[in-house]
Amino acid sequence: MLKQVEIFTDGSCLGNPGPGGYGAIMRYRQHEKTFSAGYRLTTNNRMELMAAIVALEALKEHCEVVLSTDSQYVRQGITQWIHNWKKRGWKTAEKKPVKKCRPLAAAGRRAWPA
């Protein structure tokens, strides 16, 4: 049976682009680990993605993950886009390398090689 890890994420930006940051909490039973960082010039979507990616990349073994996010962008990236990118060899529908969500695609390539 796989361990179940909960991840809670958020990202924000003042202006778009502008200064921003992200935060994530990873919880397994009574153990918690937090992640956060700030940037001088970024976008809201980038911070939302980075929160999820940093937490997912910190996992030390294969496990079941429950990811809580308020970002539709992250939700679509993880539940829809990433599967299509994998099917296409990490390319967009236009057959170009994934750029829109490059960090998410990079994490996906490591987790699910084509």
Automatic annotation (TrEMBL):
<dbReference type="GO" id="GO:0004523">
    <property type="term" value="F:RNA-DNA hybrid ribonuclease activity"/>
</dbReference>
<dbReference type="GO" id="GO:0046872">
    <property type="term" value="F:metal ion binding"/>
</dbReference>
<keyword id="KW-0255">Endonuclease</keyword>
<dbReference type="InterPro" id="IPR050092">
    <property type="entry name" value="RNase_H"/>
</dbReference>
<dbReference type="InterPro" id="IPR022892">
    <property type="entry name" value="RNaseHI"/>
</dbReference>
<dbReference type="InterPro" id="IPR036397">
    <property type="entry name" value="RNaseH_sf"/>
</dbReference>
<dbReference type="InterPro" id="IPR002156">
    <property type="entry name" value="RNaseH_domain"/>
</dbReference>
<dbReference type="GO" id="GO:0003676">
    <property type="term" value="F:nucleic acid binding"/>
</dbReference>
<feature type="domain" description="RNase H type-1">
    <location>
        <begin position="1"/>
        <end position="114"/>
    </location>
</feature>
<keyword id="KW-0460">Magnesium</keyword>
<comment type="similarity">
    <text>Belongs to the RNase H family.</text>
</comment>
<comment type="subunit">
    <text>Monomer.</text>
</comment>
<protein>
    <recommendedName>
        <fullName>Ribonuclease HI</fullName>
        <ecNumber>3.1.26.4</ecNumber>
    </recommendedName>
</protein>
<dbReference type="InterPro" id="IPR012337">
    <property type="entry name" value="RNaseH-like_sf"/>
</dbReference>
<keyword id="KW-0540">Nuclease</keyword>
<keyword id="KW-0378">Hydrolase</keyword>
<dbReference type="Pfam" id="PF00075">
    <property type="entry name" value="RNase_H"/>
</dbReference>
<dbReference type="GO" id="GO:0043137">
    <property type="term" value="P:DNA replication, removal of RNA primer"/>
</dbReference>
<keyword id="KW-0479">Metal-binding</keyword>
